[in-house]
């Protein structure tokens, strides 16, 4: 995490999944748009949204839009480059990984994925 702590995949309060969003290079307007769509997909879970945590790994978006957006996301760093293979190659692009509460990757969404498809997956897994 930004504060130097490790991400606890197992939440002691309750089992929760994590949606990890990864970007390469600066988080441009396209990156902000994708992160917003992912946040909105979580919101559609209604009373189940607390079962999904949002973790953004990449350069934080700049400006007011970035500040507002990151209120919904925890910001982390990929210490040791363990997620490098999952990062998109294009600047401003976002890929994502849906991770079980035990740290097992469930689904990978490469750059250019459909947020609607991800939303459908979230509803299947969390309802």
Describe this structure in words.
This protein has 127 residues and is of the alpha/beta class. The protein has a single domain, classed as 3-Layer(aba) Sandwich (Glutaredoxin). The chain contains three helices and five strands; from the N terminus they run E-H-E-H-E-E-E-H. Strand 4 and strand 5 form a beta hairpin. Helix 1 runs parallel beside helix 3. The radius of gyration is 14 Å and the shape is globular. The termini are far apart.
Blueprint of the fold:
Elements: E1 17-23, H1 29-43, E2 52-57, H2 63-69, E3 74-76, E4 94-99, E5 105-109, H3 115-126
Parallel strand pairs: 1-2, 2-3
Antiparallel strand pairs: 1-4, 4-5
Helix pairs in contact: 1-3
CATH fold-level assignment:
Glutaredoxin
Count of discrete domains: 1
Distance between the termini: 29 Å
- Computed over alpha carbons, the radius of gyration is 14 Å
Short description:
This protein is 27% helix and 21% strand.
Give the key terms.
127 residues, Glutaredoxin, five-stranded mixed β-sheet, alpha/beta, single chain
């Amino acid at each position: 995490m930004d504060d130097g702590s490790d991400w606890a995949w197992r939440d002691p309060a309750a089992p929760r999944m994590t949606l990890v969003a990864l970007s390469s290079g600066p988080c441009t307007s396209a990156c902000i748009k994708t992160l917003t769509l992912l946040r909105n997909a979580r919101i559609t879970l209604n009373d189940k949204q607390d079962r999904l945590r949002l973790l953004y790994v990449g350069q934080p978006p700049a400006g007011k839009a970035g500040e507002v957006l990151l209120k919904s996301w925890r910001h982390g760093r990929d210490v040791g480059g363990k997620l490098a293979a999952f990062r998109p190659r294009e600047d401003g692009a976002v890929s994502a990984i849906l991770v079980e509460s035990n740290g097992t990757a469930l689904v990978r969404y490469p750059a250019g994925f459909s947020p609607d498809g991800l939303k459908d997956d979230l509803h299947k897994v969390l309802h």
